[in-house]
Prior knowledge:
0% of the residues lie in helices and 73% in strands. By secondary structure, it is mostly beta strands.
Amino acid sequence: LAHYKGGARLTRPDLTVSAREIRAFLNEKDKDSSLEKAFADGSVEIIQVSPERTRKGTSEHAQYYTADERVVLE
């Protein structure tokens, strides 16, 4: 678990998550150290860019799951 406070930004190839606080969960030791999921809290802003469009979402809490590239805004 990596916990970032005081304003944080998570950048993926087509996704940027900005928030006051981000908790990034890494894969188990027997797999690799890549990102499994991330939870963001406080003034969350998510921007997803693709060739077809750019999408932007805001909330107070968000969850990002890398396995199925799913974002949940609450």
